[in-house]
Structures are given as structure tokens and as C-alpha cells.
Amino acid sequence: MIDFTPSEETRMIVKGLRSFIEKEVKPIEEKHREYFESEHKRLNEDGSLKPEVKAAIDKVRMRSGELGYYGMHMPADVGGGGIDRVGMFFAHREMARHGLGLNMYTLAGPEGPTQMLLNLNDAQRKKFLAPLVKGEITTCFGLTEPEAGSDIKNLTTKAEKQGDSFILNGMKTFITNAAHADFVQVFAVTDSKLYKESGYQGVTTFIIEKDRPGFKVGKINRSIIDDGGQAELIFENCKVPKENVIGQEGMGFYVAMSWIGVGRLNIASMCVGMAEYLLEKSVEYAQQRTTFGKPISKYQHVRGMLADIATELYAAEHMVLNCAWRMDQGEQVVKESSFVKYFCTNMLFRAADKAVQIHGGMGVMKELPIERIFRFARVLRIVEGTDEIQKETIARSLGL
Amino acid sequence: MKVLVCVKRVPDTGGGFKLTSDGQRVDTTNMDFTISPHEECAVEEAIRIIEKHGGSSTVLTLGPEQAQEQLREALAKSVNGAILLEAPDYESWDPAATAQAIAEAAKPGGYDILLFGNECADACNYQVGLRVAHWLDIPCVTGIKALEIQGNKAIAKREVKDGWEVYEVSLPAAFTVKEGLNSPRHPSLRGIMGAKKIPIEKKKLNKREPQLVRKMLRKPQEGRGQIEILGQGVEAVPKVVAKLRELGVI
Ligand SMILES: Cc1cc2nc3c(=O)[nH]c(=O)nc-3n(C[C@H](O)[C@H](O)[C@H](O)COP(=O)(O)OP(=O)(O)OC[C@H]3O[C@@H](n4cnc5c(N)ncnc54)[C@H](O)[C@@H]3O)c2cc1C
Questions:
Q1: CATH 1.10.540 domain span(s) along chain A
Q2: Does the CB atom of residue A176 touch ligand 1 within 6 A?
Q3: Most B CBs within 10 Å: which of A5, A7, A15, as the mutation test of the B interface?
Q4: How many whole angstroms from A382 Cα to the centroid of ligand 1?
Q5: CATH class of the region B2-204
Q6: Dihedral (C-alpha) B196, A89, A108, A364: value to the nearest 10 degrees?
Q7: For A139-246, which CATH class?
Q8: Is the complex ipTM more than 0.90?
């Protein structure tokens, strides 16, 4: 029988996380309020993060690591908490329920440990994974290139074998946390012929430390969210020992596949939490704001928008839970994780659009956190597989 | 040092609440449960006393079986043991009966320090700590915001207007504490996982006839704030002062 009631342990984790966010993280955010209200104040000329902001983010991540929340999705044998997917749904939802601020750094994202890194061997785990799970260091996931986003069969970054090493040349773009990562995970073609023929084999994943000669961070990618998060990775004759290969040579995509479903589920869970935040703020505002002598919550159009958000949220929450539960049972959830990623990111986008509308002019002003979430929600329909790529997966599952 | 800290499971009314149709209790459907902020400080103080002076801490509650959740939350923060006085009819237990049951359960434990919240978050009777101390015939300081243990005595401070009242009591003693005594820690994930493994000592209580009978709860009117513009610039100052006087703020 499927029962989605959170266990006592899950409830305690959620409460613990809430107490950490409310009592420790939000005060730090409050102290740096001007930075979180406006990207212009948060960034240097080149789009990189101001050191004070970076320090605040690091502090939150490390403290969360110390409390064991940051890496709790990872198995206990690598220092994580071994929390299952259903438990992680509740945790991600709680994290995002507090809006788009420093709270979003309390649980590991692409800068942190992922299931993919369980492919590391013992020596690599000790050196890279253990400190990553604790939040002491960060990483990034370097796949996308200027000519290869959705089309991962078009990578041009190459790694040529030379004795016991590889020589990397090429570049990656839009890589989250690239500018701050202590080591990067990079996908490069090691067997062009095989890659061309199969499309999936012949690509290898490497670990590259930030100070390795031949590797540098390129320009910061300025974007609609402009949070200093994305940047380029540039490799010019970067020599990497074979000890830095993740998993098996030539099988990089298979290494990555092992966690793609999880990443989609994480985003969807966050969408649920953030939409709850928007709904709460919108209900509050609709009750406070009066026009023509009545609170706007009394007008049918406004009530309808709020009812729509609530209804879609209910659907989203239950589809994520169902998918998470299936994953916990060891089921393959290829089309289901596409359903969930596609629906929940769009649900959040629609909720954010309505939240802006309900807040009227204030909805697009920087004083309120609503417009920022609206921009953020737009991005979520592109990362981790665009809407169209998800729909492709779904269509394929229909035998099309 | 042996410390006992007593907590009560109450509905978390942070996001507003409704009463049941018979007006007897808060409607707890879909509601989370918690303990009062005062009690959170009491739990934290128990942990700190043991960290500093050694010994063991125990958390106790009188309530339904589900109140184990509140006990486990304290265990997750590193309280050492837990006692559940299970009363299925807990909602009809008045402060006198509650205090007597706690005192009876505490007696064999030989605790040096008993900590309570100044008042619980729902009934706010301000009685249980004091009554337990009375049953056990030990001193009690209520509403404290600072506590220091020195050998077999304790210095407890209560905040008053412009200063502190300082009490020195010999142990064993009971204290009811107020929010602000310390800042409670968050449970770590390891603490949460470890808490499941600690056995909870359970004792079933017999039904009691309460001496204090609740007639009915009524929800207070939710007052909407009132805005009154008293003027602009310097001219408004005398009016602001007069208003503050009228409100009794100055
Ligand atoms: C904020 C942000 C963070 C990111 N972080 C990372 C990161 O950490 N690591 C990383 O590797 N990458 C990252 N990316 C890159 C991201 O994964 C890609 O942008 C995304 O996969 C889309 O690729 P693209 O930009 O090349 O668009 P394209 O693939 O060029 O797509 C353009 C349009 O064509 C559509 N399209 C493409 N192919 C098909 C098809 N077969 N059928 C139907 N429609 C199709 C797309 O859906 C889209 O609408 C990030 C991007 C952003 C914006």
C-alpha cells in the first residue's frame, strides 16, 4: 500500500531543517539583505559574486554540512544520511518553502555531492567525495558546450590519451558553480569514432582540480537570474592523470545517467516548496490589499487565480511523491521523472506568473521577492532537460 | 548531576487555528505538534548542564502515545533518556493531576534539577512546575532567564524591570524557565537518526476525574491593526507623545 504520510524521522528532519533555516540562515540573509534584494549589488562588474555574498553562502553550506543536512541524500557509507527519495521530497520542499534566498544553499545542489559520484573509487571518494558531502568543498557538473546542450551527441571537448594521462582541450558553458568549484566534473570525448557511431559511448568523465595547469574558468555567463552562478570552463592542453577518470573510460554518459532522474525529482520537489511560498504570500497580500473598498481576495478573478495555484500544487505534490516512492521501490522511472520535471517546473512558472499578477505593480518591483522567483521559475524549464526534451522522452514512452 | 526536563505536546498554531465545533479544543486535523519556546529553552538548558557538569538528562511528558515525537526531538538534541506518562484522556488532565503524576514518576529518579517551561503553549496555567516542586517538597524558582549550578546549589535569575532578582537555592530544586534563557540548538541529522534507537520508558496512567473542568474555548477576535495619521513633521510630535501616553506606552 502506498502511504505518503511522512515518518516521524522525516518530520523531525523537516522540523530541524526549518529551525536551522529560520533561526540561523535567515538572520545571515537579513544581515546581507541589500545583496539578496538586488543582483546589481550582489555582483562585481564581471558578474562574479561579491566576496561577502560568497562567504555567506559558504557559511550556510558548511554549517548545514556540520549538522548533517547538506549531504543527507547520500548513502551513510560516504558520510551522508541515507535519506530515501520520499524523505528528500519533504526536505527539498521545506528548503524552498522559505523563498529564494540563502535557504536554497542548505541542501546540496549541482555544486554538491550527487549519486553520480558514487562511481568514484575508494581513493577518489576519500579525497573528493568525503569533504564534498560535508560541504567543506564544492564541485560542478560540466557537460554543456556552446554547440551541445540538449544535443549531447555533439560534444567537441576532447581528451587524448598520452601514456597514463589524458590531454584535454575544449570548453564548457553555463556551468553552475564553475567559478567557485574546488574540482570540476568534465565530460570529454575519448573515442571520436565510437562516439560518432553510438552517440553514447566514447565519452569519459574526469575530475579536474581547480589549480590544474591548462584549466581555467572563463567568463561568467550573465543571465535572467544573474546570480553569479554560471560560468565557462576552458581547457587548453590540460594534462590529467588516469586516476582522475570517474568510473569506466568511455562510459561517461552511463555514469551521468545514474543520477539524472534524481536531479529531475529534486527540481520538482523544490518547485512544490516554492509554489507553496508564493501561494502563502499571495493569499496574504490578497487579504491585505484593498481596492474599491474591498480586499482584492473578494474578487472572483483573484480568487480564481489562487484556487488554480492551490489545485496545481496539489497535483504536483502528489505526482512527485508517487515518483519518489517508485524510485525508492527500485522501479525504473524514466517517463515518470520527465512527467514530474515537466509538470512541476511549469506549475511553478504559472504560479509565479499569477503571483506577480496578484501583487500588481508590487509584483514586478524589486522590494518584493516575487519577481525574482518569476525569473528563476523561467530558468527551471530549461535546465536539467528542457520542456521539449522531457516531452520527447514522454512521447518515446508512447511508442512514437 | 541528574536533570529532568518536562515538556508538553501542543498543536503548532503558527499558521492560525480553528476550534472544534463543541468549543472544547483546538481542531488539530492536519496540524503539526510542537512544544512551547520556553520548554525548548528548558531542554537546551538540561543538555548544557550535563555537558558542563556531567551526569544524565531525561525528558518527560504526560500525553498521548504520539507525544513520543516530542520526546524524540529532545533525544535528537542529545538528551539522554525519555519517559512517557501515557494518558489517553490527557486532554482532561488538569494541572493538579498532571503535577501529581509527574512528581510520582520523578521521585524514584533522584533528580537534582527539574526544569519546566514557565507555562505551556496551550493552557498557560503556570502551575505544573510549581505544583511538582510542592509535591516533592523542594524549592522552586519560576520564570527564570539565567541558571548557574555551583556544587550542590544553584543561582537562578529572574528578569524584572530595570534589573534581576537573584535566587540561591540548594539542590534538588525545580525551575520554570522563560524563553531567552539560552538559544536552543537545532538537532543534527545524526542526532535524529540516533534518537530512534533510544528506548522510551513508558508508563500507562489511569483515568482521572479532573477537579478543574473546561467549559468552553472561545477564539479571540482577530483585531486588525488600526492606522491613524497624527500629522506631518515636527508639528506631529506633541500629538504622538499624547497618543503614546493615552496608550500607556510612556
Ligand atoms: C541557469 C543555468 C544553469 C545551468 N547549469 C548547467 C550545469 O551545471 N551543467 C551543465 O552541463 N549545463 C548547465 N546548463 C545548461 C543547460 O543544461 C542547457 O542550457 C540545456 O540543456 C539546453 O541546452 P541549450 O541551451 O544548448 O539549448 P538547445 O539544446 O540549443 O535548445 C534550444 C531549443 O530547442 C529545443 N530542442 C532542442 N533539441 C530538441 C529536440 N530534439 N526536440 C525538440 N526540441 C528540441 C529546446 O527544447 C530549446 O527549446 C545550465 C543552463 C542554465 C540556463
A1: 8-113
A2: yes
A3: A15
A4: 6
A5: alpha beta
A6: -140
A7: mainly beta
A8: no
